[in-house]
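Hi W.,

Here's what went into the run:
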Amino acid sequence: MNTVLTAPSAAGPTAPTAPPRSAPRIDPAAAVARTRSRAGVGDTLTQTFAMAWRALKKMRRNPEQLFDVVMQPLLFTAMFAYVFGGAISGDVHSYLPLLIPGIVAQTVLTTCMATGTQLREDMDKGVFDRFRSLPMSRVAPLAGPMVADLVRYLIAAMLTYAMGLVLGYRPGGGVLGVFGAIVLAVITGWSMAWAFTWIGTIAKSARSVQGISMMILFPLTFLSNAFVPAKTLPGWLEAFTRVNPVSHLVSATRDLANNGVLTAQVGWTLLTGLAVIVIFLPLSVLNYRRQL
Amino acid sequence: MTTMPAVQASGLVKKFGDLRAVDHIDLEVRTGEIFGVLGPNGAGKTTTLKMLATLLSIDGGRAEIFGVDVAAEAHRVRQLIGVTGQYASVDEDLSGAENLWLFGRLQGLSSKDARATARRLLDQFGLGEAADRRIAEFSGGMRRRLDLAASLITRPPLIFLDEPTTGLDPRTRGQMWDTIRGLVDDGCTVLLTTQYLDEADQLADRVCVIDQGRKVAEGTPDALKSQVGDSTLQLELAPGADPVRAREVVWRVLGAEPATTPESGRLNVPLDVADRAADVLIALREAAVDIASVSVAKPTLDEVFFALTGHGAVPDQSPTSPAETAETAGTADDHHVMEVA
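Here's what came out:
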């Protein structure tokens, strides 16, 4: 059945004894000797920042990507304040100290979802085949966009506070308290995003990333103390909101922004964030590798 | 002088579910040569290349690139290869210069060196003027060239090219061929896949033909063609002419068996030299076999496959192994796609 046409000895100019076509300037043996078996920490950092640069460039060129982080804080803050303000706190003004930290948590988490969806979209593009074929750290393609996404969390958190101020919110924690709250929200958002990055690496399409993320995010943000005082909830639900990491973030931000105090809630929030990174960073990298 | 082969693969297997897209393929690519992997869509060419380039896991067998094991030391292998895919593996939202800068940075060049290398490659590939344009505005040929440039940043000793000219117009195709020859002059080894016999003929020092995940032939393009004929004489017999007689005449003149399509009275006669067509025609007239039409054509991949495997490039249900592979994502009739640059 199978036909082998010629023995190697019949080959013309490429027979082992024949001289090469011209003096080779690329020396394979030297190239092999230069190879290293893995990417070092320094390489990983450089590559992560290079990937972050790429993500920022793309953000600048497609500003519509930032639509969600701009519109959501503006729209939701106003909407929730006027719809729920009277019912929950008597009037809009007294609802704001409760609401604003809640909205910050919500927008930051929704932004995480965008991190996951965009990674999935990106990974389906041809350019990711090149990234995969380069001697690159396998963390960099995932971590790079996340570094760039810090910008999104920052925009989301700052705009929410700005909108609050416009509506009459006067945070008791002062500039420092609000600054602390924003930093905490950004850090938390960034850590949580690893979970959504992981979803991005396991899901089949950007759409399904969005679907899965919504299913996780909605209960998590609404079954918390983000928009209502937890004590108004039935006992079992209150118990859940108490352990919900979103509640920790909301409480911590309220303490910082409204009272200017650093409470244990900050510690719990950071700890949760760290746990998410420890679990989902390796899982994401593992999945990214496995897709080869 | 190194005698180590650039690629040494034995018994490569890739399975997608029950399907063996690549079924025990052995390959040896010598340092400094252009090696062509020839086959129709779905034969397993791209899958083979992706396994060698660390883009797909290897399900069976083993492969070494310059003696470095592909499965065990993927990171080292990636430092030795450049890969240019069928579709542009560059970033649409970035400019040509930005793309090359990024790939340079990712491979450890300083920002300054990456910029200089990007500039040099863009000029070398005739993209200097388009350097700051977004890739989205590039033509198909420009994308391919940029893609190839991106594979050369660190001057890797082995370049994989997956169907480098599919979809290019003839002029751009010729330019790409020149570029590929230039790589070898620099000391590169090139492994390319193609579905064009003439591309393999033009470029490759040696060719292997893959069909349904198996290697069916290997050798120089000349050897391959001598099996198939340099060109094909296509005869259409006049109504009433005797096909059996016609075959006898061809056999007597050329010593080769023509492929026949009895229902349409067609004969495809492989010719080693196109001139011999005349001998056949004269002999046919002397034998009083009437002919309706005559043409001489270069052998198509189909004819190569017919000669090598007994079936056409698009197999009609062979019992040996299933035919489709993940590669079928590519268009089925890339053959005649022309894109104006």
